[in-house]
Design goal:
CATH topology: UDP-N-acetylmuramoyl-L-alanine:D-glutamate ligase
Strand content: 25-35%
Radius of gyration: 20 Å
Number of strands: 13
Structural class: alpha/beta
Helix content: 25-40%
Number of domains: 1
Strand order of the largest sheet: 5-4-1-8-9-10
CATH superfamily: Ribokinase
Oligomer: single chain
Distance between the termini: 9 Å
Length: 330
């Protein structure tokens, strides 16, 4: 039973290290009040009370990894700006390794600033560059990866189409990981969707699968056929399809056949789906590093996702809370 297996999976998890490579982001929340209209223009005056920085994007995956008890090693890019400094400070505060974070001067740190008054989301300000990183930065990332590859139990490629995961970098990472027998998990986006060939596990959501293939299945049979066709095209043995309120579907290649397992959602109420995909990929990675098979890892990740969507905002899942949730539900 999952109840007894989870103890063994998390028993020595603090010794496991997972490398996250992808688009690092800083989420900044500005909280305050709106009580008047500006005399300068017909706009609201926002009176800021406090600001709260949070790790977003691939950085949120790293945060989930450490909150689940494993070690996270970040590989990515930040700008030479205040947001980059805040991001590094948040990493250090959460005991996430930052040796692999490369500072560049020709692009900003990807950040999203949300202005919130009395629980109302008024505005979001984004700073980002979607330009592909330079060949020089690619080489620096690969150099750090090669130097540390034997320390990693799992590698996660977390793509948000912000330019860090270039086609050349993706292919080089997969080659290095394969040569060193390190499993690679992928959370894809549209631009590079079909570049992640021969990885251990590929985790799109339904919309990403449909957008990348240009097809919209009308029923479960067509959806399953589409997922299997992607697996064949990409030469991958495991595809994890997240389906929102319909749960998660696992596709596993076994010889010439494909085993399909559907797992219903564990969410009791949905308050906010933000960050749920990050939670799923990080939980799967931690469980695999702890010795779990893929099926059990996805089931545990489904519990974790059910917990985060019940909360407002992007929140990490903590190991003890997850274990208690599973023990109390089974």
């Amino acid at each position: 039973m999952l109840k007894t297996k989870i103890k063994d999976i998390f028993k020595d998890i603090s010794s496991k290290k997972i490398c996250v490579i992808g688009d690092l982001m800083l989420d900044i929340y500005l909280f305050g009040d709106v009580k008047r209209i500006s005399p300068e223009a017909p706009v609201q005056v926002f009176e800021r009370n406090r600001s709260e920085p949070k790790l977003g994007g691939a950085a949120n995956v790293g945060l989930n990894i450490v909150s689940l008890g494993a070690k996270a090693y970040m590989l990515g890019v930040i700008g030479n700006d205040d947001e980059g400094k805040i991001l590094l400070k948040e990493f250090k505060k959460n005991k996430i390794e930052t040796e692999g974070i490369i500072k560049v001067t020709d692009r900003p740190t990807t950040s999203k600033t949300r202005v919130i008054a009395s629980s109302n989301h008024l505005l979001r300000l984004d700073a980002e560059s979607k330009a592909k990183i330079s060949t020089e930065v690619e080489k620096k990332i690969l150099s750090v990866l090669k130097k540390n590859i034997n320390k990693f139990d799992i590698i996660i490629l977390q793509d948000y189409n912000k330019g860090v995961l270039t086609k050349n970098l993706i292919q080089s990472i997969i080659k290095i990981a394969s040569a060193n027998k390190v499993r690679v998990l992928v959370d894809p986006k549209f631009d590079n969707f079909f570049e992640f060939e021969k990885v251990f596990a590929f985790k799109p959501n339904r919309k990403e699968l449909e957008d990348a293939t240009g097809k919209k299945p009308n029923n479960n049979t067509e959806l399953n056929e589409l997922a299997v066709s992607v697996m064949k095209r990409m030469k991958i043995d495991n595809l994890i399809l997240t389906l929102g309120e319909s749960g998660i579907r696992i596709f596993e290649k076994s010889g010439r056949n494909f085993k399909i397992t559907s797992i219903p959602t564990r969410a009791r109420k949905v308050a906010d789906v933000s960050g749920a995909g990050d939670t799923v990929i990080s939980t799967i990675a931690v469980c695999l590093a702890g010795g779990s098979d893929l099926n059990d890892a996805v089931q545990i990740a489904n519990f974790a996702a059910g917990m985060v969507v019940e909360e407002v905002g992007i929140v990490p899942v903590f190991k003890e809370a997850l274990i208690n949730n599973i023990n109390g539900s089974l």
